Amino acid sequence: MEPPSPFPKTGTPGTPAGGPLTALSDLGRALSESHTPAELGEAVIRFVTERLGYRQAVLCMRRQEDDALEPVAIQRRGDPPAAKASLPDITFAPRQIVAGPLKATTGNGDGWLFHLFPEAQHGLSTPLVMQGQVMGALGVVCADATPFGAQEAAFWGAMSALIAAAAANLQRTQAQRRERRIADTLNQISAALVSSLELDHTLSLILSSLEQLLDFDSAAIYLLTPSNRLRMVAARGMPQVEVTMASSKEVDRFRLDETVLSSRKPLAVTDVRQDPRWTPLKGTEYIRSWLGVPLLARGNPIGLVTIDRSTIRPFTPRQIALAEAFARHAAIAIENARLFTRVTAQQEQLRKLSIKVVEAQEEERRRISRELHDEMGQALTAIKLNLQMLLVSLPEGDDFLREQVEEVIRLTNDSIQEVRRLAMDLRPSILDDLGLVPTLQWYKTQFEKRSDCRLNLSIAPQLPRLLPNAETALYRVVQEALTNVSRHANARRVEISLSADEKGVYCTIEDDGQGFSPEAENASGVGLTSMQERIEALGGAFNLVSAPGKGTTITIFIPAPSAFRAEEGETP
Ligand SMILES: Nc1ncnc2c1ncn2[C@@H]1O[C@H](COP(=O)(O)OP(=O)(O)O)[C@@H](O)[C@H]1O
Ligand SMILES: [Mg+2]
User: Fold this and answer.
1) Number of folded domains in the chain?
2) For ligand 1, which residues put their CB under 6 angstroms from it?
3) Nearest protein CA to atom 7 of ligand 1, as residue
4) Which of 325, 344, 363 is the last residue of a domain?
5) 170/34 same-domain check
6) In degrees to the nearest 10, what's the CA dihedral of 177, 182, 185, 190?
7) pLDDT per residue over 377-411, tens digit each?
8) Which domain range does residue 488 map to?
């Protein structure tokens, strides 16, 4: 059915099919269903082409970052219908859109429109104004320059007001959404950054997070070295990152960076090629627009983040503020990671030192033990043999002398036993020769001989030989724990169990004695402390549970790398 006021399909401005009110209400509905600028643009283009009959039309919308008007939908001659065409890469300043009495213009009248439709003879452009602000522009190409009648002008005005309102609304929701997204992203980033403690990981996390906030082609982090030079430590999007990173070691400081560091403020350069301070590193000659943001820790610069664009796309004040907010989080994360690295390194040093001390101590004990056993033991045995020979060669009848010699032999025997015991206590050679398990079995016999307490050893059948330091540590801990049992526990039974899996070695020492309060002031003596230190030096865990009347349980864990030989690796 022909509409009452048919719109001529020639591209002449006029009133729409279906009557102006119906058309406007249809347009309003279509606009309200648009959630993105592209959807909005598509709805508008479809309206002016399908309902108003124009063959070529374009809708531009204001870009939030820089207020430029950019096409969001276009329909050109030869384009597929419904504005699915690719968008031209061109923007206009709002002042390029001619406002004022609505009439079709000829030739270059509305310059912006003829940039998009160079072959057009006549065009009609209208700014979309909302509360005095240009939200965008609608342009159509028409067949002639016939002025609008009053009705058509009223319709056109209502239509553009409708589109402007929809555009403003969309921009507002988009801005809100963007703010929310930025806030969320910043929160996520700062949470992730604070929990990341490894410096390299933190640095790459900073750059990948930055990508969620800002649009850039490359970005890098530079940190001040102890000699006050700047060194690139991480980069993203740099085509020749190795070359660039290497060349960052050769130069002192760059003058743009210097400005950022000394002012402690971000610095944005629209075109670095116009800036005499720009001295590009190798491989970064592509950079055009540049933003440098200082990394400040407690107010002092520790480095900077540089954000690059390979075409001239200036950074807006908003983007700069965002980068600055981001850099605050990043600087804290870098400081944290560095502190953590330092502390970890110191701990590691301390651990190595304490292993060395223990090793030296064990070596010394081993030496004295051997000396006692070999030298003293030999000497005493020789004395004993001589005395026995003397005894044999004593003349009959001298009972007094015989008893005296027999007494000396007995004393010598005791001394031999005592030296042997001392040597074993210091460092049982069986530990070096046969390992932990036979040593513990030997120790059990000794222990039960000396006390009324029964000792039960439960050792996993396939327990492998452990590394010497682990065997020594376990032996010393068991020794000290059993000394405590006999000294303080008043226990009837003590149970030692030893097992291993792929994670490491586990040992528990549990007695049924009187227990004690580990929290009490006097509870931690040299013995307990040194047990703990020995185990922790091997990267392991030491745990003691006790309460008065409840017995005492010590649990020990030594991780696989400290416990097992690397080449064997396998566990029971
Ligand atoms: N198995 C245990 N049963 C009861 N008390 C214990 C036991 N082990 C340790 N203790 C208590 O913990 C204290 C600290 O032990 P330790 O550090 O070995 O020092 P020391 O044995 O020289 O007193 C002991 O004095 C004792 O009171
Ligand atoms: Mg003790």
Assistant:
1) 3
2) 484-485, 487-489, 511, 513-516, 523-528, 552
3) 484
4) 344
5) yes
6) -150
7) 999 999 999 999 999 998 888 888 899 999 999 99
8) 434-572
